[in-house]
Amino acid sequence: MSALRKKFGDDYQVVTTSSSGSGFNQPPPEKKKKRQRFVDKNGRCNVQHGNLGGETSRYLSDLFTTLVDLKWRWNLFIFILTYTVAWLFMAFMWWMIAYIRGDLYKTHDSTYTPCVANVYNFPSAFLFFIETEATIGYGYRYITDKCPEGIILFLFQSILGSIVDAFLIGCMFIKMSQPKKRAETLMFSEHAVISMRDGKLTLMFRVGNLRNSHMVSAQIRCKLLKSRQTPEGEFLPLDQLELDVGFSTGADQLFLVSPLTICHVIDTKSPFYELSQRSMQTEQFEIVVILEGIVETTGE
């Protein structure tokens, strides 16, 4: 029985064994040079977009998704920078009201009612803003009823603070709850094997779940990435072909309580039907396996 083991995107070796499974009848070919993969084994896509030019504005139009897609160090930097700038700006606005009204120079006059009591410089205005925004309420600094502009600024501060909190905290929460780390406990076999199963030539690999929590509605798909030329002469450098892993029979719907073997029958409808064992060694292609499901514990 002939078997071909192919390591996705790396090297492969062709092994021919007898029906009894004894010995090697031919030595494996020399190790091929490692090729660049379109998709790494950790799921990271290596396809990079070129210069977008004027399309950068499209990222800014969906700012929330852009922030979620950023790396953690940039998220933390934007998080700290936004709050720092917003706090300094609002503290400056309270100091500006006190400066325009002359409260900074009349704090010692007992007959004068200031806009905000006990605000006499920028640090005290900043402390008043923090106490108000964080609802600490020490009671030493407070808005008086003789300051309508302070009341309007207080309302603006409350609305702006709610928007900033909802935007940034929501962004951080979604980024922390992304199920990317959960994918690290979904294991795929290191090699794919082509051999006979149930009397049919079959491409097989295994997938398993390391955690006790199940994957709900798990479904698996396989894509063959391969360049080809159409009968009209058009060259497609990255054509995607679907590999049938049981779509017609429902075998692609997985119940991952134990490791499962995924099978693709190489029949007349398979893209591998016209490939021989020798052409497998020189053909340039990549198989991408996509496993989708819902995490039982989080619903992600």
Automatic annotation (TrEMBL):
Location relative to the cell: Membrane
Record's compositionally biased regions (Polar residues): 14-25
Primary localization class, coarse: membrane
Record field: catalytic activity: K(+)(in) = K(+)(out)
GO molecular function terms listed in the Swiss-Prot or TrEMBL record: G-protein activated inward rectifier potassium channel activity
Record keyword Transport present: yes
Signal peptide: none
Listed GO CC annotations: monoatomic ion channel complex; plasma membrane
Key words of the record: Ion channel, Ion transport, Membrane, Potassium, Potassium transport, Transmembrane, Transmembrane helix, Transport, Voltage-gated channel
Domain Inward rectifier potassium channel C-terminal: from-to ranges: 186-299
Keyword Hydrolase found: no
GO annotation, biological process: nervous system development; potassium ion import across plasma membrane; regulation of monoatomic ion transmembrane transport
Potassium channel inwardly rectifying transmembrane domain segment(s): 39-179
Region spans: Disordered: 1-37
Assigned protein family: Belongs to the inward rectifier-type potassium channel (TC 1.A.2.1) family. KCNJ3 subfamily.
UniProt name for this protein: G protein-activated inward rectifier potassium channel 1
